Amino acid sequence: MEELDLHHIFSLGLILVMIAAGTTAIAKKCSQPYPIVLVIVGTIIGLIDIPVMEPLITFITEGEVFHFIVITLFLPALLGEAALKLPSSQLNENKKPIIALVLIGILVSFGVIGFSSMWVLQLSIPAAFVFAAVMSATDPVSVLSIFKTVGVNERLSTVIEGESLFNDGVAVVLFNISAFSLLTYTDLGMIGAAHGLWEFVKVVSLGFIIGGALGYVVSLLTKYFDDYPLEILFSLLLFYGSFILAETIHASGVIAVVTAALILGNYGAEIGMSPATKLNISSFWDVAALLANSLVFLMVGLEITRIDITDKWGLMFAAIVIVLIARSAAVYASLFFVKEAPPRWMHILNWGGLKGSLSIALVLSLPRDFTGREELLIMAFSVVLFSLVGQGLTIKPLISRLGVNKKEEGNKEFEALLARVYRYKNAVAEITRVKENLFLTDTATREMLDEYENTLETLQEKMEHLFQTHPHLKEKQQATLLRHSLYAQHEAVERLVKEDIISNEAGEKELDIITNKLVELESE
C-alpha cells in the first residue's frame, strides 16, 4: 500500500512539474516574469477544489516538507547556480554598493523591522526579530527575470544579485540567532547581545572557511580531468556537500555554498575547465535552476492558500508597510555615500528588494510551540504575496520610467531602420507572391515594387552610415551571424557522425573546436 501511495505521490508530483513547466513556458513566451505568474497560478490551483491534486497539495504544504524542499533540496542549487556564473571581476567592480547593502543595509532593515514590530505590532522580542530576519532576506529571481526582459544596466543587475546572494546567508544567521538564542538570552542584557554577536561572527566565518576550502579543493580537482559530465558531478557534490557540512557543524550553509560556487566558477574555471566544460556546466545548472525556481514559486502560491487570514487584514497591512519602510531606510541609508550607486539605482534596488520562498520556508521551520508563530506566518505570507505580485508587476514600469533600461547610443535609430527594412522586404516578397499566384502583370506591380526597392536602398545607405558612426552595431550583427554559423557547423558535424561518414573521435575534436569558439563568443 505504501508503494502505491508513493507511486501516486510521484505521479502527482510529475503533474506539478508539468504545470510549472507549462506556466513558465507561456510566461517566457509572453515576456512576463515567470515567478510572479507561477505564484498566481499556484494560488488559483490552491483555491480551486481539485480532488485528484488534494493529496499532493496537502503533502507539499506541510511546514516540514516545504522547508525541506526549499531549504535543503532547492536552495543550494539556486545559490550555487547564481554564484557559479557571477564573475569575480563584476563583483569587484561593484563591491562598494554590494558591501554597503550586505553589511549596513541588512542591519538597518533588521533593526527597523524588529523594533517596529515590538512597538507597533506588540510582538515579543524573539518574535519581532525573527520577523525582522525573515524579511531582511531578498529574493532576486523575480526582479532579475524582469531585468532581462527590459535590458537593465548589467552593473545594476550585478549589485542586486550580489546583495541577495550574501544577504540571504546573513538573514538566515540572524534568523537562527533570533529564533533560538534570543529565547535564552533575552533577559541577560549586554551578555545576551555579546553572545548573539559572537554567534553571528562564528557562523558566518565558519561558512566562509568551509565554502572556501571545499571550493578550492574541487577547483584543483578540475585540473586533472577534462570530462564535463564528471565535473558537473563535482559541482553538484560541492554545492550540496558544502551546505550540509556547514549546517551539520552549525555554520552558515548559505554562505558556504555561495563562497564555494564563486571560487569554482572563477578560480576553478580558470585553472581547470575547458570552454566546452564551462558551457556544459552552465547549461546543466541553467536547467536545474529553472526547474527549482518554477517548482518553488508554484509551491509558494499553493502554500499561501493554506493560511487563514480571517480578521487579520490590519496585521497584514501593518506588516507590509513596516517592511517597505525598512527596505527604503536600508537602501538609502547604506548607499547614501556610495558614488557608484546613483539615485535611480537606489529607487530600483528599493522597490526591487522582493521577498520570496526563503522567507516562507524560514517561518515554517519555527517550532509549533514558538510564541506568535501563527501571526508570523500570516505576516510573512502577506508581505511575500504583496512583494511578488504588487512590486513584481510594477517594477518593470518603474525601470522604464526611470530610464535605467536605456540602450547603447545609436540603438534606437538602428532598431527603427531595421524595423522599416523588415517591413518593406516583406512587402516586396508579398507583392511578388501575389503577382505569381494571381497572374498579375508587370504593369500593375512594377510601380509599387520600384517604390519599395528605392526605399530599401535608401534605408540600407542610412544603416551603412550608422555602422560607420557606431561600430558596435555592426559588431553585434556580426556576432549574431557568427553564432548562427557556428550552430550550423555543429549540426553539420553531428550529422556526419550520425551517418557514420566520419568517426566519433574525429567528430568530437571538431565539435570541441566549435564549442570553444561559441564560449569565446559568449564571453566577449
UniProtKB/TrEMBL annotation:
<feature type="transmembrane region" description="Helical">
    <location>
        <begin position="203"/>
        <end position="225"/>
    </location>
</feature>
<protein>
    <submittedName>
        <fullName>Cation:proton antiporter</fullName>
    </submittedName>
</protein>
<keyword id="KW-0812">Transmembrane</keyword>
<dbReference type="InterPro" id="IPR006153">
    <property type="entry name" value="Cation/H_exchanger_TM"/>
</dbReference>
<dbReference type="InterPro" id="IPR018422">
    <property type="entry name" value="Cation/H_exchanger_CPA1"/>
</dbReference>
<feature type="transmembrane region" description="Helical">
    <location>
        <begin position="284"/>
        <end position="302"/>
    </location>
</feature>
<feature type="coiled-coil region">
    <location>
        <begin position="442"/>
        <end position="469"/>
    </location>
</feature>
<keyword id="KW-1133">Transmembrane helix</keyword>
<feature type="transmembrane region" description="Helical">
    <location>
        <begin position="125"/>
        <end position="144"/>
    </location>
</feature>
<keyword id="KW-0739">Sodium transport</keyword>
<feature type="domain" description="Cation/H+ exchanger transmembrane">
    <location>
        <begin position="19"/>
        <end position="399"/>
    </location>
</feature>
<keyword id="KW-0175">Coiled coil</keyword>
<keyword id="KW-0915">Sodium</keyword>
<feature type="transmembrane region" description="Helical">
    <location>
        <begin position="98"/>
        <end position="119"/>
    </location>
</feature>
<keyword id="KW-1003">Cell membrane</keyword>
<feature type="transmembrane region" description="Helical">
    <location>
        <begin position="344"/>
        <end position="364"/>
    </location>
</feature>
<keyword id="KW-0472">Membrane</keyword>
<keyword id="KW-0813">Transport</keyword>
<feature type="transmembrane region" description="Helical">
    <location>
        <begin position="237"/>
        <end position="264"/>
    </location>
</feature>
<keyword id="KW-0050">Antiport</keyword>
<feature type="transmembrane region" description="Helical">
    <location>
        <begin position="165"/>
        <end position="183"/>
    </location>
</feature>
<feature type="transmembrane region" description="Helical">
    <location>
        <begin position="34"/>
        <end position="53"/>
    </location>
</feature>
<feature type="transmembrane region" description="Helical">
    <location>
        <begin position="6"/>
        <end position="27"/>
    </location>
</feature>
<feature type="transmembrane region" description="Helical">
    <location>
        <begin position="376"/>
        <end position="395"/>
    </location>
</feature>
<dbReference type="Pfam" id="PF00999">
    <property type="entry name" value="Na_H_Exchanger"/>
</dbReference>
<feature type="transmembrane region" description="Helical">
    <location>
        <begin position="314"/>
        <end position="338"/>
    </location>
</feature>
<keyword id="KW-0406">Ion transport</keyword>
<comment type="similarity">
    <text>Belongs to the monovalent cation:proton antiporter 1 (CPA1) transporter (TC 2.A.36) family.</text>
</comment>
<feature type="transmembrane region" description="Helical">
    <location>
        <begin position="65"/>
        <end position="86"/>
    </location>
</feature>
